[in-house]
Amino acid sequence: MTQRKVAVVGVSLSDCGRVNEATPYALHAQAARRALADSGLGREVVDGFASAGLGTLAPIEVAEYLGLRPRWVDSTSVGGSTWEVMASHAADAIAAGHANAVLLVYGSTARADIKAGRRTGDLSFGARGPLQFEVPYGHTLIAKYAMAARRHMHEYGTTVEQLASIAVQARANAASNDEAMFRDPITVDEVLSGPMIADPFTRLHCCIRSDGGAAVLLAAEEYVRDCRTRPVWVLGTGEHVSHTTMSEWPDFTVSPAAVSGPIAFERAGVRADEVDVAEIYDAFTYMTLVTLEDLGFCAKGEGGAFVEKGRLLVGGDLPVNTDGGGLSAQHPGMRGLFLLVEAARQLRGEAGARQVRRRDGRLPSLAVASGTGGWFCSSGTVVLGRG
Fold it and tell me: Among 129-143, 331-345, 360-374, which stretch is predicted with the lowest mean pLDDT?
C-alpha cells in the first residue's frame, strides 16, 4: 500500500506565562481552537486525537471536553518527549490510512496551581517498583540531571561557564519573542552567582515554571490544498527509551537522543549538518548540551566548546530554541509540543523578530525537534521540512 505524506498544517499556543484564571482544560481548548484556525480546516476533519497528562482516562476525557469523537487515539506518556513520540505515532497512522487528521494538544496550569496552593513545587513520581531503591535517599529529579552534568564535566572538561552560556543564549533568543515569559538579558556571571539548586545548577540553569498550552494538527497530504498556510512536512521520526533508575543508566554522558536522533535523520534522508534550526528540550542547560552531541551536531565531549561564542543564537551557526526555550520562554510541564510549534513557525517564516534566515537570506528548509523525558529516560526526535 502506498504511504501518504504527512504535514503539520496547524500550530498554536494558548495563553502562556502567568495565567491565573484558566483551567488546564480551558488551555487545551484554547490551543486547539487556535491551531484549527491556523490550519484553515474545520474540526470535522479531525479523526485522531493525542493527549497525555490530564484526566482520568486521557485522552478520552480531554477529547470529550473538546467535543471530539476520534477513531484513533494515543495517550503515550513518557515525560517531556511525549509529544515528539506522539507525533511519530500520528504520522505513521496517517501515512497508513488509519487516520486523516490528528490533533495533538496539551495544557497545564503548573505555575498557577502552586501559587494558589493546589499543589506543591515538587511532584513525586512515586516510590513503587524500581524507584523504591532511589526515593528513600532523596535523589530528586534536579539532582539526577545535576549528577549527569557533573559526570560530563569530569569526563570531558566541560565547564560550568559553558553550561551557563546556554542559558544566556536562550534568554537572548527570548528577547525577540513577545510570548516569552522572561526577556531581560542575563550574563554568564549572573547565571553563576544565582541561588544553588543542585550543584552545578544554579536557578538560571533550570527551566522556568509557567502556565500554558500548545496544539499541533497533522494531516494527510490531500488536505494540504485546503489549508491556510504552506505545509511543513514530517520527513522522519525516531523514539527511544533507556532506563528508569540511575543505576541502570550505562553512561550519564549519553542521552536517548543518541538513538532517536540518528533514526529520525536516516528516515528523513538528511544529515545533522543540513539542519537549519533545532528546537531541543531544555529543562536544564546540560540537557541542551548533551542532546546537541547525541543528535550529531558535534562529537561526544565537544558540546562545551560547541555552545560557546553565540552559536545557538537566532543569528548563530545553529540557532537553538529560537523562542527562548524552557529556560526563558515557557515551561508548563511536558514542553515537547512547544518545540514542534516553534519549529513549524520557523519553517513557515512566521517567527517575527526571531525568524531564522539562511546565509543567502532564504527561510530555513530543515528543522529538528527533539524532546527528552523523565531523567534522560526517553527521547523523541522529529525532522521537519518546509513545503
Answer: 129-143
Which cell numbers hold the place of 76?
A: 503515550
Q: Is residue 165 part of a domain?
A: no
Is 142 buried (19+), middle (13-18) or exposed (0-12) by CB count in 10 A? middle
Q: Is residue 309 part of a domain?
A: yes
Average pLDDT, integer, range 287-305: 98
Does the pTM of the predicted model rise above 0.90? yes
The set of cell numbers assigned to 117 is 496552593
Note down the domain range covering 303: 6-116+207-386
Residue 133 domain-assigned?
Answer: no
Neighbours of 140 (CB within 10 A): 15
Q: How many structural domains comprise the chain? A: 1
Residue 188 covered by a domain = no
- Here the CATH number for the domain that contains residue 59 is 3.40.47.10
DSSP 353-365: GG----TTSPPP-
Q: How many CB atoms lie within 10 A of CB 187?
A: 14
Give which of 31, 27, 39 is closest to 12, Cα–Cα.
Answer: 31
**Which carries the bigger pLDDT value, residue 10 or residue 244?**
10
Statement: residue 123 has pLDDT above 60: no
Classify strands 366-373 and 277-280 as parallel, antiparallel or unpaired: parallel
